[in-house]
Design goal:
single chain, alpha/beta, Rossmann fold, 2 domains, eleven-stranded mixed β-sheet, six-stranded mixed β-sheet, 19 strands, about 30% helix, globular
Length: about 425
């Protein structure tokens, strides 16, 4: 299906309201029950926290009126709307220019809320295949596929009988869902296909005039979207790698044979009709050609020094070649500037603009900086962006998943 037409520019005077995550916390409703079953929102007793609470109440007012609002999560900023309202969900697709067959993820703020949207034939119980994972990794960047009930509009799932659900850990996301009293559908808060936003400024750059409000909660911690797990597949499948790693999931009983989509298998039917975001369409791309230098590594191991040296030499050779005819400077996203340098930073000599994302051995840091780096180099008007790929250990798997989708050219090292 094609993307819906973008809404007319400047439909809204987009407002940005800041809120400090530290203003909000949660406590069990009953000390005898799980703290995640029915958590109670608590607001700090300070003038700043009360002001932050007022900002969230403004967002809740809009969400209850079926308007979309951009909110921070621990992964990336999300474009949230009432997941139970077809009208609200339609506005997400309109604001983003998102294809209608690209499913959304539903966000809940309690186990009780999750149970309330499961089909009655499940007796409102969490599927056993997920229980141990939820106990360990919720709230957090883990999305699970569960059966869709009639309460969930088909627009959310792209017509599928399953729906993707997660329980975010970010205090502002949790607080907003709790205050609304209903789950929120929330894909990344960017124009469809663009690099995901990890700062409020990224959201404003893409969606100014298309949405009424952005809640600025600072920089996102993870930097890449959540892991999506299909526990009902045989064997279980990670449909999109993210902040909860393959290694972490594989350690759980029943998940020993978990597969990773595209790395371990491909399903033509799933490609044509995806059950989760990030599968069918090109994503995460700046308006600049991205060239990925993909490194070879075995499962659980980082590339060796010889491979890394070869990668650096290939990048330098390509820079030299393209500078002869390049209409502008060349941008490079590196894992470090030189051996032993793990501090990151930026340097520019007039021809090459380099950003260091982090150390090869720290994929979490690379993930945090990835989308920010793509956007920063784009803003510096570079003609190309060369990216040094990393090994697929830990969050490196999610980093490389995003980069392969963003790149127009992939060079194997």
């Amino acid at each position: 299906m094609s993307a819906p037409a973008a809404c007319s520019p400047s439909r809204f005077a987009t407002e940005i309201l800041s809120a400090d995550p530290e203003s909000f916390s949660f406590a069990p409703r009953d000390p005898a029950e799980s703290p995640l079953l029915r958590p109670v929102l608590q607001v700090k007793d300070s003038p700043k926290a009360q002001q932050d609470h007022a900002s969230l109440l403004r967002a809740v007012e809009l969400l209850r009126s079926n308007e979309p609002v951009a909110i921070p999560t621990e992964t990336v900023y999300g474009l949230a709307a009432n997941a139970l309202s077809p009208e609200a969900v339609a506005k997400i697709f309109l604001a983003k220019g998102r294809p209608s067959d690209n499913p959304l993820i539903i966000h809940v703020s309690s186990i009780e809320m999750l149970l309330s949207i499961l089909p009655s034939e499940l007796s409102h119980r969490i599927p056993q295949v997920y229980q141990a994972l939820i106990d360990r990794h919720w709230p957090g960047p883990l999305t699970i596929l569960v059966p869709r009930s009639s309460k969930i509009p088909k627009q959310v799932t792209g017509g599928h009988d399953t729906v993707a659900v997660r329980f975010p850990s970010h205090p502002i996301a949790r607080a907003l869902i709790s205050l609304c009293g209903f789950p929120l559908a929330a894909p990344s808060a960017n124009t469809s296909g663009r690099p995901s936003p990890t700062l409020a400024g990224h959201v404003f750059a893409d969606l100014q005039g298309r949405i009424p409000l952005i809640i600025d909660g600072g920089s996102c911690d993870s930097g890449v979207e959540s892991t999506v797990l299909d526990g009902f597949a045989t064997p279980p499948a990670i449909l999109r790698p993210g902040g909860i790693t393959y290694e972490q999931i594989k350690a759980f009983e029943g998940m020993e044979n978990v597969r990773v989509y595209r790395r371990d298998y491909v399903d033509e039917a799933l490609e044509a009709a995806p059950t989760t975001p990030g599968m069918k369409y090109r994503h995460y791309s700046p308006n600049v050609e991205v060239v990925l230098f993909e490194v070879s590594s075995t499962e659980g191991h980082l590339p060796n020094e010889a491979v890394l040296s070869k990668r650096r030499a290939m990048v330098q050779t390509e820079i030299t070649k393209r500078l002869e005819s390049s209409p502008g400077p060349i941008g490079v996203l590196r894992t470090w500037f030189a051996a032993g340098d793990t501090e990151g930073g930026f340097r520019y000599d007039g021809n090459v603009a380099e950003l260091a994302l982090g150390a090869e051995s720290d994929p979490h840091k690379v993930a945090q900086e990835l989308f920010k780096g793509l956007r920063e180099l784009e803003e510096r008007k570079v003609a190309y962006i060369f990216v040094e790929g990393i090994g697929e250990k830990g969050e490196g798997l999610a980093v490389m998943n995003r980069l392969r989708k963003a790149a127009s050219t992939v060079v194997s090292v």
